[in-house]
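Throughout our pipeline, every protein is held as a single compact record rather than as scattered files. Nothing more is needed to write down the fold, since each code stands for a local backbone conformation. The record that follows is passed on verbatim for readers who wish to inspect the format.
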Amino acid sequence: MGRLAAVATCTLLVAAACQNGDGAARYAKTVAEAVPRIEQSVGLKFKTPPKLEERSKEEVYNFLRRELADSAVQKELAGRQAAYRILGVISDSLELRKLMLDLLTEQVVGYYDPRTKVLYVVKGAAREAAGIVVWHELVHALQDQYVNIDSLLHQRDNDRVTAASALLEGEATIESLQALAGPENARAAEAMFSSWDRMRESIRQSKQVMPVFSSAPPFIQEMMLFPYVSGAEFVRRYKDHRAGKPPFVDVLPGSTEQILSSEAYFGAKRDDPIAITLPAPKSGTVTFQDGLGEFEIRDFLFQHVQAQDEAVPAAAGWGGDRYMIVHTPRGDGMVWVSMWDSAIDAVEFTSAMRHAIGIRFPGNGGAGAQEGGTRWDTYARSITLWGGDLAGHPTVIYVDVPKGSPTDLIDRAKVKASR
């Protein structure tokens, strides 16, 4: 969901902390103060002066609506909606496009548009919140003068885009807060960076400030928070390992696993993801395909098993994954192939999946399926879970189709994998 969340900068951390204000006026003084301090904090100079303009709430809403009306974005939203419904992390009635529009409209106080190279601030925004957003977005403007933000956030790989978004947002969050605090308050800024769990909980409970966010499915809430919270944690670790070099001009993290795991990114050998290619389905029509990545797998498992000590280790050891949404005469089905670092990792993930399926469909105990897999039949769906070795990697295949549809959607022998 990285590209969708990056349509505009969602000022979640700011919105939770700043509830009142008498409106925003002009920001020339703020920019003049912020630019040299951000340059000092980041360690890079602006190549050209940043541009800042105000936009009305109506103009921002129309901008967001146009972005979400883009055909590629609509296809992505429809595909993810189908996947998330099948995985049971959103309801069958939730319309993801409307939710995203409502979320972004509610949260946005300001945003940097890499296409126009302009930082926009919403007219009438709370003065304190808007001032903090200007600092945050100026970091994005600086980043964009050294890397192409637009291209980073429009790759056709959900997990890679989410990782890039986490780096950019985490960097903007940390550097803007450090620059705002100044050297004399560095210790207080550091204390703020160590309290992300409290900040996350504060945001979730901000029902008066962000009613749309507070009522969104927890899976979506976590996805919206990830770039800011986990991204900031990654950037803090980066500074510990490679002080003096901005992370966005280094080798970018290629997966959320590398955002979450120090060893995966900072280890002697980076743990790059396995690229999985799925064969055409035996029946039905492919309408969308992508991957979840370690973070979304962790998020998905937690929403069902409600235990961090089960979801987190079950998603660790992720090597790569790919899913397809397949339209059948009876409705949408899903085939999801995940590969793991070791057989033990695959078994741990399989165990958590069995637990999650059992919670989702109580009273539909798994029955033996062909070739060592397990099958569940509910009143509306047929589900299979298979584990084995494919292309030299421990592999788990999850299939969920409308009842009465064949569950052998793909030829396993034709799955390809490469690094």
Observations:
- The longest helix spans residues 158-181.
- The two ends are 23 Å apart (CA to CA).
